[in-house]
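Notebook, bench 3.
Goal today: get a predicted structure for K Homology domain-containing protein from Cryptosporidium parvum so we can plan the truncation constructs. The sequence was checked against the plasmid map this morning, with no discrepancies at the termini. Length recorded as 144 residues. Pasting the sequence as submitted so the record is complete.
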Amino acid sequence: MKSILDEGDVICTEVQRVQSEGICHLHTRSAKYGKLANGMVVKVPNKLIQRQAQHIVKLKYGIQLILGLNGYVWISLPFEHSHTDTLNYSSSSVKPEIVNSNIRKSIVMLAFIIKLFGLKNMQITPERICKVFDRFTELHLSYK
């Protein structure tokens, strides 16, 4: 792992099990897990993240969400990978990109909406996030 990731990298992984001594067994052998870039993280109370079949969701706005059951939500550009990607290949190919201003504004707006759900103690689902985002856009509301 040390050859793939550096200390301080933000990663997405699946916790397979936690032993009584506190040792965590992680699953990262798929291209959908690994190093994260080109986005931001938001923390909300973990009880608000609703369990779903898929926690990595690509939204219609060209933005991807990772809804962690630990309460962390990663908002970013979508991952670009093929079915042949492995952790070694996909993590090493993750590079910071210049994100255009419209996408950056959308990422910040989505972060604002997710934080708002957290403050109002509301369950967080991709559908609810999109509904509020669409309404904010219709009304030309800003997060400022």
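Confidence is low (pLDDT under 50) at residues 87-92. DSSP finds three helices and eight strands in the chain.
Flagging this for group meeting.
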